[in-house]
Specification:
The chain is of the alpha+beta class. About 25% of the residues lie in helices and about 35% in strands. A hairpin with a 3-residue loop joins strand 5 and strand 6. The protein is rod-shaped and about 100 Å long. It binds zinc ion (ZN). Zinc ion binds next to loops. The site of zinc ion has 9 residues, from loops.
């Protein structure tokens, strides 16, 4: 199964009026063709990787690569190659990639806006994900919101992977008898210092 590789797309062919075939000496029988190669992944064109050319004599069928072309034919090939850029679809993969990246940036911006909103007006049920010294992570759950402070419950568990916090974020892991008051200002300080790195609502 071919996952990636290169393929060539035909760009243009012209019949040269001037070229003389080096094989059969016929004039005006040479067709010059330009191809552009592109890298593909699962047949999705990613980006172009350069042009190739060949010529073929209609009279004797002799085929020449660009290296084998006499100067007169090669010069016509170079002109043809420069005049014909090649199709935009050969950039599809790059375009898709650019869209995905901008979408990810947009999403992370939106996420940050939401978090700031959650931080500014906390609600009961909000969960703060935070770092503990020594490479561990845990969560705090808000159970009551007051003027300047919050009543929070710490999670009974810690975990060593940030991305696995959802596994311990379960109702039964918050024991209300361990709840404590914390100033909103302190939560803000923890958030802006990166100690609290995510807020889930
Ligand atoms: Zn020929």
């Amino acid at each position: 199964m071919i996952i990636f590789g290169t393929r060539a797309a035909h760009i243009k062919s012209v019949l040269s009026k001037q070229a003389v075939c080096p094989n059969c000496n016929e004039k005006g029988s040479i067709i010059i063709s330009v191809f552009r190669k592109h890298a593909h992944i699962f047949w999705i064109p990613m980006f172009p990787v350069g042009k190739r050319g060949i010529s073929q004599c209609q009279n004797c069928k002799n085929v020449l690569s660009t290296k084998e072309m006499p100067d007169s034919i090669r010069n016509e090939y170079i002109k043809l190659k420069e005049e014909n850029k090649g199709p935009l679809w050969q950039f599809s993969g790059l375009a898709l990639f650019a869209i995905l990246i901008s979408w990810a940036f947009y999403q992370s911006g939106e996420n940050e806006k939401l978090e700031q909103q959650y931080l500014a007006s906390p609600k009961s049920g909000d969960v703060y994900e935070y770092k503990i010294e020594g490479g561990f992570y845990s969560t705090l759950k808000v159970i009551e919101v007051n003027n300047d402070s919050l009543l929070v419950v710490p999670n009974d568990y810690e975990i060593d992977k940030m991305s696995k916090l959802y596994k311990i974020d379960k109702d039964e892991n918050y024991s209300e008898e361990f709840s404590f008051k914390i100033a909103k200002k302190e939560i803000e300080t923890m958030y802006y210092s990166g100690e609290i790195f995510d807020i889930n609502r």
